[in-house]
UniProtKB/TrEMBL annotation, chain A:
InterPro entries: CDPF1, CDPF1_dom
Protein name listed in UniProt: Cysteine-rich DPF motif domain-containing protein 1
Family: Belongs to the CDPF1 family.
Domain Cysteine-rich DPF motif intervals: 13-105
Domain of life: Eukaryota
From TrEMBL, chain B:
Highest taxon listed in the record's lineage: Eukaryota
Pfam families for this protein: DEAD, HA2_C, Helicase_C, OB_NTP_bind, WHD_HA2, zf-C2H2_DHX34
Keyword Ribosomal protein attached: no
Biased composition (Basic and acidic residues): 59-71, 711-740
Keywords, comma-separated and alphabetical: ATP-binding, Helicase, Hydrolase, Nucleotide-binding
PROSITE patterns: HELICASE_ATP_BIND_1, HELICASE_CTER
Organism name: Coilia grayii (Gray's grenadier anchovy)
SMART domains attached to this UniProt entry: DEXDc, HA2, HELICc
Stated name of the protein: DEAH (Asp-Glu-Ala-His) box polypeptide 34
Amino acid sequence: MEASAGGTVRGMFTCELCGLATPFTYFGQKPPNTRAIVLLEESYVLKDPFSHDREKFIVLGSSCTVCHKVVCVGTECSLFYTKRFCLPCVRENLDQFPQQIQAELAKKKSAPLHTDPAKR
Amino acid sequence: MTSMKMDDKWDWDSPQCRAQLDEVFFRQHDYIQAGSQDHKDFWAFFERFQRFKAKKEMSGSKDNKYDDPKCSKSRKSGSLDLGLPKEYDARYKINISVCTKDVEEKMEGCGYRRQTQSGPGKQEITDCRLALLHFLDFSQKQSFNKLAKLRHEQRSLPIFHYRDKIVELVKAHSVVVVAGDTGCGKSTQVPQYLLSSGFTNIACTQPRRIACISLAKRVSFESLNQFGSKVGYQIRFETTRTLATKLLFLTEGLLLRQIQQDPLLSQYQVLIVDEVHERHLHCDFLLGVLRALVGVRPDLRLVLMSATINIKLFSEYFRGAPVLQVPGRLFPIQVIYQPIPPEEQASRSEKLDPRPYLRVLQGIDQRYPTEERGDLLLFLSGVAEISTVLEACQTYATHTQRWIVLPLHSTLSLAQQDKVFDIAPPGVRKCIISTNIAETSVTIDGVRFVVDSGKVKEMSFDPKAKMQRLQEFWISRASSEQRKGRAGRTGPGVCYRLYAESDYDAFAPYPVPEIHRVALDSLVLQMKSMGLGDPGSFSFIDPPPASSIQTAVTYLREQGALDVSGELTTIGSLLAQLPVDVVIGKMLVLGSLFNLVEPVLTIAAALSVQSPFLRSAQHNPDCATARQPLHSNQGDPFTLLNTFNAWVQAKGERGGGSRKWCRRRGLEEQRLYEMVNLRRQFKELLRSHGLLEEGSGGAVTPEERRRRRDRLTERQQLHQLKRQHDLQEGARRKVLRLEEGGQGDSSGSDDDNASQGTGKGKKTEGQNLDIQEVKFKLRHNVDQLQEVASASQDLSSRRQALLKLLLCRGLYPQLALPDEHNATRKDSEQIFHTRNKQGVVIHPTSVFASDPEVLHVPEQEDGQPGAGKGQSGRHQLLAFVTLLETNKPYVSNCVRVPALQLLLLVSNCVDSNGDCTRLVVDGWLELCLSDGERTLGVVSTALELRAEWERLLQAQLCKRRPSARDLQHLSDRLVRFLLYTEVNYTIRRLTALQSQNLYVGPQSDPTTSDAQALKTIFPGWDPQPDPIKGGLRVSSYFTYNCLSDPSDLYSECLRTFWTCPHCALYMPFTPLERMQHQASCKPPEEQPAQEESESETAAPSSSSSLSRLYHCDICDKDLTLTSTEILKHKRQHAVAS
Ligand SMILES: [Zn+2]
Ligand SMILES: [Zn+2]
């Protein structure tokens, strides 16, 4: 199955928290044709469908270092701080994170993660 | 770099310094390359980033308040150690790194790094890297958010909940009906659901071309294939389809044409027919065809998509197909009934009273604060009504400064139509005054108020008058609900209905389907060509009246597309494949015969699109002057031809200045682009049917080779431009200015003062890329077009006459006769009569509306012998393309042509009396001629010319191209006949009563003698008694002596003495007998010449010996006699009895 010019679809990426589902074209730390760029985590990557350039990519998500759930990079689902953490795991271990991160999280409404509208 | 040595300080703003860093981070194969847009964006970002950093450093230790050493140590006992760094750094939040070690080392190795001489030092590289990381992180977030937003929107569509159900149903059933109201997302989502669940080769039909394009764009974006071709569209002139295309949006008409080529549609696995509730002619027919197809192809999946209107009808038609109903997403809408008081209701002749509409605007201003956004959409029935209300609202808007008033209907220029999507400035509302185009075809966001007049103008076909009619009707309840719904797309809304609730209840539930309203000619032709048998017994979802089908069959027979038994003729099967009206198709086929293809292609294309002449510009004196040279008083098709040719020339001369050229003349350039595309499509069709000679091959000259190379280079550049344009598309909407309302420079208003608008129109659109021009150049070879244009620009008067004849033969029987009193009437009161409708007028856009004198019969030239009152050789007819009744019956796109000559050359039925002084054509036109003998001669020539024309045409249609010599000979003779036939006559329309009593009827005593006589006059024909009309049927279209004229009764006795100049025979003769004698008794030297000119039609064998076998019924003997002897013999019996 072909997703877009340049990228062959390897599978479907689905965030275990928000349900965001979209195909991905690469999994790993070194997306093709990016020369000096290296990802600091094993990520699900999609060739950027909004760009005409073949090498532009979007990081969709990766596994939470703590619980190993597959999560998207959306700020409602996870954050990266040297490693990927899903927000539930961040909350669980909030005390280990620096004040700045804690403040950022606090700023976000205590609203729950946006739920899958399909399951509403 | 030399300049940098002077300066020993690193300067971030210096282009040279930046270039050095570009060497490190933005090399040729890097993720971001120097010179790209991303690269520019980076340096812009860099500046912001530096400023941000500087600000943060200024505020000093603020950040340090978080530097709590405890944070990483004092974790709750028992929990996991995440191993996070002790000190916070924003850098840790980025999941990307950039490795440029190799380059940096290389630079160091070359001694590049000279701190003192301002090369980038470690610090600079670090700074730049950090900025780059933040930039990459920022772009990642942007792209991801775009994706997430897209997915979120898809999931919040009402139809999303039914995703699995839909896929399940389609897998299990061959036909499924999906019904959902506006905004439920069915058109964009259902194809994607099927695509992503493994279906492939999906076709989705749309009633409108524009929807095919926009849906393909949207769906390819949503399915993340914006730059691929998995999702494509195909419309009349354009396609983005490739082998990789799995989902194709196309028009209903196009799918029908594909069925003609591929009856099983084996190229598709799934067919989605969208908007079936709109009940377009094509769609109803398509459903009928597909209903039969699903029986033959059980693997085919058919999905019908409809609004929640009359769903049962579709489900039952497809033998109880399952229905999935999806609720729409509409906000609550308050309905207010505000019937128009009787004193403000316009009577039929009057203009619409705008007061009820103005009151709504005032009411909105009083009730809703200006901060509350929300535009107004007002539905009126037609262009004239829009113009009236627009004028009043415009005055109000100028006064209050709170409204921008915009018209919306299909005859506006596209730029003007596009304006309704622009945004009003704060504190100002848009008031869009529209026809029902905004009911379904055009969707405008941000509408909060709807005003519904409850009226619509609909085209209907009057088979009796053979006329289209645009009439005003009450809308249906379904339309009314649709209009109301437009107020609740983006928030709660209000709908003002300018009629009573009781009116609403009395409305018909649904609009009348198109198949019940329009002429079915094209449909019947297509059905015949698809071999669907008797159109009357085809099982339509809602069958049209049998009389409609009969009318169409009769018409097609008249046009020669069907034969007597109702089967397709050769030309008919060709016409069925041309996507145009039958009359236009005929022109194309006729044009291909003579060497007039190029101008005919142009005219056929021009007559198949909307007129490029903007109505409003007609009142603009500058435009009128600039248009003057384009006008042809031969007729509107010639004006269109001139316009097209001049436009093509303008394109070459000014290179891209054609836009200005068009504006100066009040032309909508889009229509000219449509013409050039259609023209090309016609040409390809003719070529694929073997009707065009292939372009002359021959060796390629070096010059030609060079030109081709140049063209290739140019095409590459153009492709580049187009790509750039496509990328920029979807740019944000403009904000309207207050003064932008009104009809502006391109209103399409009916008759009233259209130029009352703001009179501006010098828009500064010159700089931006003219994408139409680019597409044009990509698609067409401009040099070739120009050659063709200049060739058809200066047609000789003879070529022009031939071209006119072809057009008129195509247009026949669409003819109108000028009223005999026109010369004494005012220009605006000229009237004309068609066979089925009296008193039609010329549409004001026609060249003959402003110059009617050219249609008048010139003053009687004196001294013409035998020319009685009203007699002239200069009578003309008007051939027309459309007859449409709005407030009056109008003919438009007219050509003038000599009457007698045209009628003899093209009409289906010419009847004469005994002495040929009276002809009746098609049972409605009576021609009284002063010289019967001469007339008989003219008819004889016409018969011969027609036979030859037909012979060559049939040969052409059977792909046996006639010789150039034969063609040249025929065209010379046709032109001579058309231009130089000198016969004086009167012409008039017969009354209904006269038309009923035309014929003598079958005679008990068939006049065999006449038959014999006619054989001599019309060599090659075999006159037979006509069993219905009486008289003798000479050819399929000419019947002699069948008219029951009072004087006709005595024609047998009307003999006068006459002496033959050749054989000196002196006897009483009827005119026919006299001519017969003359035909057979010619001076010897004339005979061979005549024989040659009529060689094809093989004159009777005895013409050399002058005598032949004659059977006399009275004495029952076979005699060998000359014509004269036959006459003498007959006379004996006459005297004896
Ligand atoms: Zn998520
Ligand atoms: Zn986790």
